[in-house]
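Two records follow; treat each independently.
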Amino acid sequence: QVQLAESGGGLVQAGGSLRLSCAASGRTFSIYRMGWFRQAPGKEREFVASIVTSEGSTSYADSVKGRFTISRDNAKNMVYLQMNSLKPEDTAVYYCAGRSAVSPKYAYWGQGTQVTVSS
């Protein structure tokens, strides 16, 4: 099993920045790709960004390209999401997730951290 724990959420003004962290523990060697997802009130959960843990290749949702950066520190079993130029529409609960190489489905999820961007 893999356990994920997010931190770093909070309240920020529009145009500001936040960095989210995700700490992974357990069978972390089984994780191929780590992702960040978010869910705003009344909306479905949506993909934000992902990273292949071994090689570092990344993928982003169009809505965050150029503003958010996903990174990882394999030695510390950490994944980060640097969020710049935040907008009120970025307000959501942000979740860290992980999946193996053999399944397209994210099997491991954190508890989420709230990000609120005020206008």
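The next record belongs to a different protein.
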Amino acid sequence: QVTLVESGGGLVQAGGSLRLSCATSGRTDSLNVIAWYRQAPGKQRELVAAIDNRGSTNYADSVKDRFFISRDNAKNTVYLQMNSLKPEDTAHYYCNFKSLLTKYDYWGQGTQVTVSS
């Protein structure tokens, strides 16, 4: 079992920045991918950014060069630095852990990000 706890969401004006954190605990396999997803009202959940255990990253086109994902393995935490925020970034942001060994994945409860225009 893996537990994920997100934090760092809030209300920010367009052009501002936020940093989300995802703290992981439990049986976290060494081979894994941790990702941030988001879901806006009336829309499907979409991948925002992901990072694997080697540090390789990928991003949705809509956030490239604005959002940056990183991980601190010593703290079992993944971060999402969000810059130049836009109203369309408003969504509930979820952290996801996927084991590359067992293929199981786990979700956190999410954190709300609201960007005002």
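Discussion point: The two ends are 40 Å apart (CA to CA). How would you locate this feature using only the token line?
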